[in-house]
Amino acid sequence: MSAPKLIIKNLSKNYLLSNKKTVTALKNFNLKVFPGEFVSIIGPSGCGKTTLFNIIAGVEEQTFGTISLDGNIENSRQGKFGYMFQNPLLLPWRTIKENLILGLDIKKVSKEIAFKKAFSLLKEFNLEKYEDQYPSVLSGGMKQKVSLLRTLLFNDSFLLLDEPFGALDQITRQSLQLWLKQVLKKFMTTTLFITHDIREAKLLSDRIIKL
Amino acid sequence: MKKYQSSFILIIILLLFWEIYVRAEFINMRILPPPSHIFEALYSHWNSLFPHVFQTLLEAMMGFLIAVILGFALAVLLDISPKINKTIYPLLIISQTVPIIALAPLLLLWFGFGILPKIIIVVLYCFFPIAIAGADGLFQTKKQFMKLLKSMNASYWQGLLLVRLPSSLPSFFSGLKIAATYSVAGAIVGEFVGAYQGLGVYMQQAANSYSIDLVFASIFLTIILSFLILFGVTIVEKRIIRS
Questions:
Q1: Which of A162, A177, B151, B175 would staple A83 via disulfide (CB 3.0–4.6 Å)?
Q2: What are the UniProt keywords, alphabetically (chain B) (predicted)?
Q3: Which residue of A has its CA nearest to B169?
Q4: Does any domain span residue A113?
Q5: Cβ pair A83:B162 closer than 8 A
Q6: B243 contacts A93? CB cut-off 8 A
Q7: Measured between alpha carbons, how far is A9 from A21 in angstroms, rounded to an integer?
């Protein structure tokens, strides 16, 4: 078996409240994720799943513990993961193709190359007819598809998917689960996935972790 | 235009009521001329009014544009760091408690009777709503968007230009609309205190010679100028905010 892509060691997160009391959101969490693996994290609301993702993505700092990516301990992890939120967070003033290249704009990729990449991705998943539309005309499921493609275009080596289908109805959810499987198979992406739905976790994952 | 139909009808009704009230001699026409006399005076004195209208419009537009630049820069400055915000914000509030009409004579002393003191007065009237609305718009960027930007390792300026500024535009334009309505009134305040030309000067001259119809004609033109600037802002808003 190849070396783990991600190693999380003794990760803890404490929050200091305004009354000077401390709340522990995560305590001594350990995890190894191997290249190309799809690992689901399940657990009740408030158990620290989103905090864990925020820390991995570098949005929040951990109180204790280390995170290694490709064998190196990473203290500055921003930009090293593709992080997709429960809310699609599409920018309403940007067209679909402009939304797709947001991460590439931040990476200062030239517009020409960025749009080419965005178009080929949209075409690959039969969404090219929406490239010049604004997010307001898309359904909830379509918005999530675009959001996932934006995340992939930013970073297709490691995805953090935080309940991406949580707000969708059952039928849309099932079709998106199959679609996600198909997308990730093409990209061979390593994925950490948060869900409440044990059936969803079983369908998609190589491994399930309970937090 | 359709959405303003009801207010247009209300204005017509009020003008008609005013016309009938004065013509029925409930009030002396010399004290309150009917709208028909005001429009007649406006038409017959248009040639002498025009240079004053142009002067006031010039002062209001220049002051407004400078206020937009200053207000915008100040909004970004307030946003850059909480420390700067805490230092500058109270000063901004203090600046608004000073009655600008009291500052006008001082500005006249310092900068003379030319266009500059009027432009400064317009700027003083307009920059505050622009700066505050702009800063509020920037502060109110959704937390989730901030998280997204952070996860993508966006710099402050990238986040500002790509996400926060576009998302704050509706709030920024609200401030611009308020400022647009202040701009002409600001110019007239400046002209009242001392000027060679402008609607403020014309209004004073008309009042001094008891030409009440011309005072009202100047007020009417002030309203039209304010609407013109507001209309311009609305057009720019519609072009910029696409969805």
A1: B151
A2: Cell membrane, Membrane, Transmembrane, Transmembrane helix, Transport
A3: A93
A4: no
A5: no
A6: yes
A7: 25
